[in-house]
Amino acid sequence: MSHARSHASRRTVLALAAGAALAGLAVPALAAGTADKHSAAADHTRHTTAKPTVVLVHGAWADSSSWGDVVNRLQAQGYPVLALANPLRGLAQDSAYLESRLNGITGPVVLVGHSYGGAVITEAAAHVPNVKALVYVAGFAPAENESIGALTAKYPGSHATPDALNVVPYDTGGTKGVDIYIKPDKFRDVFAAALPQRQTNTLAAVQRPIDAGAFDETATAAAWETIPSWYLVTRDDHAIPPATQRFMAERAHAHTTEVTAPHAVMLTRPDAVTDIIRSAATATR
Length: 285
Known about the structure:
alpha/beta, six-stranded parallel beta sheet, 9 strands
C-alpha cells in the first residue's frame, strides 16, 4: 500500500469514528429531549385529569358514617374523599369549622351537603376559593339573612314537627343549651321511611342531635350565588318538603335531579347521590 493511500485510509477511519461519536452523542440528546417532552405531556395530563377532593357534610340526626356507601363508590372511581364530622352546634360555628378544614385541602373541592349540612356548605364555601362546585343532597340552600326554620315552614309537608321531636337541655359545665332529637318512634317516618324498621331503630339510637338555635340562626353568605350548584330533590322527603327543595334549587339555578327517596337518600339511593356528585366534579374540572 502506498504512503498516500495509507493516509487516506486513516482519514476515512477517523472520519467514520468521529461521525459515530457524534451520532452517539446525538442519540442520547434526542432521547433526552423526547423524554422531556413525554414527561411534560404526562405532567399536563395528570394536571388536567386530576380528580377534585369531594368533601361530604352530614346534617342533623346523622353522622359522617351515613355517607359510607357513597364514599365507597367515589373512592372506587378514584376520587379523594373526606366525610366531615359536622359539630351541629349552630350555623356560624359549624361553617367556621368547615371553612378551617377546607383551607387545609390543596386543589379543587366539590362540596356536598345533606339536610342542614347544605346550609353549612352554603356559608363556608363563600370564603374558600378552591371550592368549584356545590352539591345539595336534599339540603338547605339558604339566602343571606334566611334561616333553615323559615325555609322548612315555607311549604307544608314536613313531619319534623314539635310532636315528633325530643327537646333535651344540656350543660357542658360552661355552656348551656337545648339539643333536638327525633323521637325514636318517629324516626323512620321523618328521616328514612324506605329503610327497614330494624335499621331505622339503630339509626334513631345513634342519631346526633342539633342545637335548637341552629333552626333560627340566619346565613351571612350564600355561596350558590357565585359557585355552580347541583341539587338532588327527594320526592318522598318528610323532613324538608320537596316543594321547598325545588324552590331552593330553582333560586340557585342548580342542575337539578329528582329521585323517589326519603330524606336519608344517601342511605337508600347511594348510586343516585354518587352520580350527581360525579356530574358536578366532571363539569367543573
